[in-house]
Protein backbone atom coordinates (compact mmCIF):
# COMPACT_ATOMS: atom_id res chain seq x y z
CA UNK A 1 0.00 0.00 0.00
CA UNK A 2 1.52 3.35 -1.04
CA UNK A 3 1.87 6.26 1.38
CA UNK A 4 -0.87 8.20 -0.39
CA UNK A 5 -3.22 5.23 -0.55
CA UNK A 6 -2.67 4.85 3.19
CA UNK A 7 -3.75 8.49 3.60
CA UNK A 8 -6.83 7.76 1.50
CA UNK A 9 -7.78 4.82 3.72
CA UNK A 10 -7.16 6.70 6.98
CA UNK A 11 -9.11 9.72 5.82
CA UNK A 12 -12.28 7.99 4.70
CA UNK A 13 -12.66 4.79 6.73
CA UNK A 14 -13.73 4.38 10.32
CA UNK A 15 -11.25 2.49 12.55
CA UNK A 16 -13.23 -0.76 12.41
CA UNK A 17 -13.41 -0.70 8.63
CA UNK A 18 -9.74 0.25 8.45
CA UNK A 19 -8.76 -3.00 10.13
CA UNK A 20 -10.93 -4.91 7.68
CA UNK A 21 -9.29 -3.19 4.71
CA UNK A 22 -5.82 -3.91 6.00
CA UNK A 23 -6.64 -7.60 6.38
CA UNK A 24 -8.34 -7.94 3.01
CA UNK A 25 -6.54 -9.89 0.32
CA UNK A 26 -8.40 -8.48 -2.69
CA UNK A 27 -6.80 -5.92 -4.95
CA UNK A 28 -7.68 -2.25 -4.35
CA UNK A 29 -7.92 -1.85 -8.13
CA UNK A 30 -10.94 -4.15 -8.19
CA UNK A 31 -12.99 -1.90 -5.91
CA UNK A 32 -11.87 1.64 -6.68
CA UNK A 33 -14.30 4.05 -8.29
CA UNK A 34 -13.81 5.52 -11.76
CA UNK A 35 -14.16 9.28 -12.18
CA UNK A 36 -14.60 11.05 -15.51
CA UNK A 37 -12.61 14.16 -16.41
CA UNK A 38 -12.73 16.15 -19.63
CA UNK A 39 -10.64 18.73 -21.49
CA UNK A 40 -10.47 20.02 -25.02
CA UNK A 41 -7.48 19.33 -27.29
CA UNK A 42 -4.92 21.76 -25.85
CA UNK A 43 -1.35 20.83 -26.81
CA UNK A 44 0.93 20.26 -25.05
CA UNK A 45 -1.39 19.73 -22.09
CA UNK A 46 -3.80 17.39 -23.92
CA UNK A 47 -3.14 15.90 -27.35
CA UNK A 48 -5.71 13.99 -29.37
CA UNK A 49 -9.05 14.21 -31.12
CA UNK A 50 -12.41 15.40 -29.81
CA UNK A 51 -14.63 12.52 -28.75
CA UNK A 52 -11.70 10.27 -27.84
CA UNK A 53 -9.36 9.69 -24.95
CA UNK A 54 -6.34 12.00 -25.11
CA UNK A 55 -3.36 10.31 -26.69
CA UNK A 56 -0.79 12.08 -24.54
CA UNK A 57 0.04 15.40 -22.93
CA UNK A 58 1.21 17.04 -19.71
CA UNK A 59 -2.24 16.85 -18.11
CA UNK A 60 -2.50 13.17 -19.01
CA UNK A 61 0.80 12.46 -17.27
CA UNK A 62 -0.47 14.41 -14.25
CA UNK A 63 -3.59 12.25 -14.03
CA UNK A 64 -1.62 9.05 -14.43
CA UNK A 65 0.42 10.05 -11.38
CA UNK A 66 -2.71 11.03 -9.46
CA UNK A 67 -4.34 7.73 -10.33
CA UNK A 68 -1.42 5.92 -8.74
CA UNK A 69 -1.22 8.10 -5.64
CA UNK A 70 -4.94 8.45 -4.97
CA UNK A 71 -5.88 4.86 -5.67
CA UNK A 72 -8.63 6.10 -8.00
CA UNK A 73 -9.33 5.33 -11.65
CA UNK A 74 -9.81 8.20 -14.11
CA UNK A 75 -11.53 8.12 -17.47
CA UNK A 76 -10.23 11.03 -19.57
CA UNK A 77 -12.10 12.40 -22.59
CA UNK A 78 -11.56 15.24 -25.06
CA UNK A 79 -14.67 17.32 -25.70
CA UNK A 80 -15.50 20.71 -27.18
CA UNK A 81 -14.52 23.15 -24.43
CA UNK A 82 -17.97 24.64 -23.74
CA UNK A 83 -19.48 21.15 -23.57
CA UNK A 84 -16.77 20.01 -21.16
CA UNK A 85 -17.53 22.91 -18.83
CA UNK A 86 -21.30 22.39 -19.11
CA UNK A 87 -21.14 18.67 -18.38
CA UNK A 88 -18.82 19.26 -15.43
CA UNK A 89 -21.30 21.85 -14.16
CA UNK A 90 -24.17 19.38 -14.47
CA UNK A 91 -22.20 16.53 -12.91
CA UNK A 92 -22.14 14.38 -16.06
CA UNK A 93 -18.37 14.61 -15.72
CA UNK A 94 -16.64 14.65 -12.36
CA UNK A 95 -14.28 17.42 -13.30
CA UNK A 96 -12.02 19.24 -15.73
CA UNK A 97 -8.44 18.15 -16.24
CA UNK A 98 -6.77 21.56 -16.34
CA UNK A 99 -8.01 25.15 -16.39
CA UNK A 100 -7.66 28.58 -14.85
CA UNK A 101 -9.95 30.09 -12.23
CA UNK A 102 -12.66 32.67 -12.74
CA UNK A 103 -15.74 33.65 -10.75
CA UNK A 104 -18.20 31.84 -13.02
CA UNK A 105 -16.29 28.55 -12.92
CA UNK A 106 -16.00 28.83 -9.15
CA UNK A 107 -19.80 28.56 -8.88
CA UNK A 108 -19.71 24.94 -10.05
CA UNK A 109 -16.10 23.76 -9.58
CA UNK A 110 -13.81 23.29 -6.60
CA UNK A 111 -10.19 24.25 -7.27
CA UNK A 112 -7.63 22.15 -5.36
CA UNK A 113 -4.01 23.19 -4.87
CA UNK A 114 -2.69 24.69 -8.16
CA UNK A 115 -0.45 22.50 -10.30
CA UNK A 116 1.21 25.06 -12.54
CA UNK A 117 1.68 28.78 -13.16
CA UNK A 118 2.11 30.54 -16.48
CA UNK A 119 1.56 33.94 -18.08
CA UNK A 120 0.02 34.93 -21.38
CA UNK A 121 2.43 36.53 -23.83
CA UNK A 122 1.92 38.95 -26.70
CA UNK A 123 2.58 37.42 -30.13
CA UNK A 124 3.09 39.53 -33.26
CA UNK A 125 4.59 39.37 -36.73
CA UNK A 126 8.38 39.64 -36.55
CA UNK A 127 8.41 42.23 -39.33
CA UNK A 128 5.91 44.44 -37.50
CA UNK A 129 7.08 47.34 -35.36
CA UNK A 130 5.02 49.07 -32.69
CA UNK A 131 5.27 52.51 -31.11
CA UNK A 132 4.73 50.99 -27.66
CA UNK A 133 6.29 48.36 -25.40
CA UNK A 134 3.18 46.53 -24.09
CA UNK A 135 3.94 47.35 -20.48
CA UNK A 136 0.26 47.83 -19.64
CA UNK A 137 -3.09 46.77 -21.07
CA UNK A 138 -3.64 50.36 -22.18
CA UNK A 139 -0.89 49.74 -24.76
CA UNK A 140 -3.34 47.41 -26.54
CA UNK A 141 -5.56 50.34 -27.49
CA UNK A 142 -6.16 50.73 -31.21
CA UNK A 143 -5.02 47.18 -32.01
CA UNK A 144 -7.10 44.22 -33.12
CA UNK A 145 -6.38 41.63 -30.43
CA UNK A 146 -6.67 37.96 -31.29
CA UNK A 147 -8.06 35.71 -28.55
CA UNK A 148 -9.09 32.05 -28.48
CA UNK A 149 -12.70 30.98 -27.89
CA UNK A 150 -13.27 29.68 -24.36
CA UNK A 151 -9.96 30.97 -22.94
CA UNK A 152 -10.02 33.19 -19.86
CA UNK A 153 -7.46 35.99 -19.71
CA UNK A 154 -7.98 37.13 -16.14
CA UNK A 155 -9.95 39.72 -14.23
CA UNK A 156 -7.43 42.53 -14.85
CA UNK A 157 -7.57 42.00 -18.62
CA UNK A 158 -11.38 41.81 -18.63
CA UNK A 159 -11.53 45.09 -16.74
CA UNK A 160 -9.04 46.67 -19.16
CA UNK A 161 -11.17 45.62 -22.15
CA UNK A 162 -14.00 47.77 -20.77
CA UNK A 163 -11.90 50.58 -19.35
CA UNK A 164 -9.76 51.08 -22.46
CA UNK A 165 -12.35 49.97 -25.05
CA UNK A 166 -10.08 47.25 -26.39
CA UNK A 167 -10.96 45.44 -29.61
CA UNK A 168 -11.09 41.64 -29.35
CA UNK A 169 -11.33 39.27 -32.32
CA UNK A 170 -11.80 35.60 -31.44
CA UNK A 171 -10.99 32.39 -33.31
CA UNK A 172 -11.53 28.74 -32.38
CA UNK A 173 -7.92 27.66 -31.84
CA UNK A 174 -4.38 28.82 -31.11
CA UNK A 175 -3.12 27.78 -34.55
CA UNK A 176 -5.93 29.58 -36.37
CA UNK A 177 -5.01 32.74 -34.47
CA UNK A 178 -1.35 32.30 -35.39
CA UNK A 179 -2.33 31.98 -39.04
CA UNK A 180 -4.54 35.07 -38.85
CA UNK A 181 -1.65 36.92 -37.26
CA UNK A 182 0.69 35.96 -40.09
CA UNK A 183 -1.88 37.24 -42.62
CA UNK A 184 -2.26 40.60 -40.82
CA UNK A 185 -5.90 39.90 -39.99
CA UNK A 186 -5.14 40.65 -36.35
CA UNK A 187 -2.40 42.85 -34.90
CA UNK A 188 -1.42 40.79 -31.85
CA UNK A 189 -2.42 37.47 -30.32
CA UNK A 190 -2.49 36.48 -26.64
CA UNK A 191 -1.48 32.99 -25.47
CA UNK A 192 1.02 31.52 -23.02
CA UNK A 193 4.41 30.41 -24.31
CA UNK A 194 4.01 26.67 -23.70
CA UNK A 195 0.76 26.38 -25.66
CA UNK A 196 1.92 28.79 -28.37
CA UNK A 197 5.17 27.01 -29.05
CA UNK A 198 3.41 23.65 -29.08
CA UNK A 199 0.90 24.86 -31.69
CA UNK A 200 3.80 25.91 -33.91
CA UNK A 201 5.91 22.80 -33.39
CA UNK A 202 5.24 21.46 -36.90
CA UNK A 203 5.13 24.88 -38.54
CA UNK A 204 8.70 26.25 -38.49
CA UNK A 205 7.88 28.61 -41.34
CA UNK A 206 5.09 30.18 -39.34
CA UNK A 207 7.16 30.27 -36.15
CA UNK A 208 9.95 32.14 -37.94
CA UNK A 209 7.46 34.76 -39.06
CA UNK A 210 6.40 35.55 -35.48
CA UNK A 211 7.94 37.09 -32.41
CA UNK A 212 6.92 37.26 -28.75
CA UNK A 213 6.73 40.11 -26.23
CA UNK A 214 6.57 39.58 -22.46
CA UNK A 215 3.57 41.89 -22.17
CA UNK A 216 1.69 43.05 -19.06
CA UNK A 217 0.18 39.74 -17.97
CA UNK A 218 1.01 38.31 -14.56
CA UNK A 219 1.58 34.61 -14.04
CA UNK A 220 -1.67 32.82 -13.14
CA UNK A 221 -2.25 29.42 -11.54
CA UNK A 222 -3.60 26.40 -13.40
CA UNK A 223 -5.87 23.98 -11.54
CA UNK A 224 -7.71 20.70 -11.73
CA UNK A 225 -11.44 21.41 -11.46
CA UNK A 226 -13.67 19.16 -9.33
CA UNK A 227 -17.40 19.32 -10.08
CA UNK A 228 -19.52 20.44 -7.15
CA UNK A 229 -22.31 18.26 -8.58
CA UNK A 230 -20.16 15.11 -8.29
CA UNK A 231 -19.38 12.84 -5.31
CA UNK A 232 -15.71 13.58 -6.01
CA UNK A 233 -16.08 16.79 -3.98
CA UNK A 234 -15.75 14.64 -0.85
CA UNK A 235 -12.13 14.01 -1.85
CA UNK A 236 -11.13 17.69 -2.15
CA UNK A 237 -8.97 17.56 1.02
CA UNK A 238 -7.21 14.46 -0.28
CA UNK A 239 -6.53 16.08 -3.66
CA UNK A 240 -5.04 19.06 -1.81
CA UNK A 241 -2.83 16.83 0.31
CA UNK A 242 -1.60 14.72 -2.60
CA UNK A 243 -0.94 17.71 -4.87
CA UNK A 244 1.00 19.39 -2.07
CA UNK A 245 3.10 16.22 -1.70
CA UNK A 246 3.71 16.17 -5.46
CA UNK A 247 4.84 19.79 -5.39
CA UNK A 248 7.17 19.28 -2.44
CA UNK A 249 8.80 16.13 -3.83
CA UNK A 250 9.42 17.68 -7.26
CA UNK A 251 6.91 15.57 -9.22
CA UNK A 252 4.90 18.58 -10.43
CA UNK A 253 8.04 20.31 -11.68
CA UNK A 254 9.10 17.13 -13.50
CA UNK A 255 5.72 16.78 -15.22
CA UNK A 256 5.30 20.40 -16.25
CA UNK A 257 8.95 21.31 -16.66
CA UNK A 258 10.28 24.80 -16.16
CA UNK A 259 9.11 27.34 -18.68
CA UNK A 260 10.41 30.89 -18.58
CA UNK A 261 8.87 33.69 -20.62
CA UNK A 262 11.18 35.65 -22.92
Question: In words, what does this structure look like?
Answer:
- There is one protein chain.
- With 262 residues, the protein is α/β, with parallel strands linked by helices.
- It has 2 domains: 151 residues, 3-Layer(aba) Sandwich (D-Maltodextrin-Binding Protein, domain 2), CATH 3.40.190; 94 residues, Periplasmic binding protein-like II (D-Maltodextrin-Binding Protein, domain 2), CATH 3.40.190.10.
- It contains 10 helices and 11 strands.
- The strands form 2 sheets. Strands 1, 2, 3, 4, 5 and 11 form a 6-stranded mixed sheet that branches.
- It is globular, with a radius of gyration of 21 Å.
Task: Note the topology.
Elements: H1 3-12, H2 15-23, E1 34-39, H3 58-70, E2 73-78, H4 81-90, E3 95-99, E4 109-110, E5 116-118, E6 120-125, E7 144-148, H5 155-163, E8 167-171, H6 174-182, E9 188-192, H7 193-199, H8 204-208, E10 210-213, E11 220-227, H9 236-248, H10 251-256
Parallel strand pairs: 1-2, 1-3, 7-8, 7-9
Antiparallel strand pairs: 3-11, 4-11, 5-11, 6-9, 6-10
Query: Whole-number radius of gyration?
Result: 21 Å
Task: Please identify, by name, the CATH architecture of the largest domain.
Answer: 3-Layer(aba) Sandwich
How many strand units? 11
Characterize the largest beta sheet: strand count, sense, and whether it forms a barrel: 6 strands, mixed
**If you average the pLDDT, what whole number results?**
88
Q: What's the CATH class of the largest domain, please?
A: Alpha Beta
Distance between the termini: 44 Å
What is the helix content?
25-40%
- List the helices and strands in order: HHEHEHEEEEEHEHEHHEEHH
**CATH topology group of the largest domain:** D-Maltodextrin-Binding Protein, domain 2
Overall outline: globular
Number of domains: 2
Amino acid sequence: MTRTTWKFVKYFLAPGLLALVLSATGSADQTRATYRFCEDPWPPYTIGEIGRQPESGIAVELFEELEHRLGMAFELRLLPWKRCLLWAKQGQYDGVMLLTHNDDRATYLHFPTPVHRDANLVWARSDRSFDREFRSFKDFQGLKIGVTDGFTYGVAFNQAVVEHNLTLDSAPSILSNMLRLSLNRIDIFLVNGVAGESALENRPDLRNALTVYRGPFESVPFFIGLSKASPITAYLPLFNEVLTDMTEDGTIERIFGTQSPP
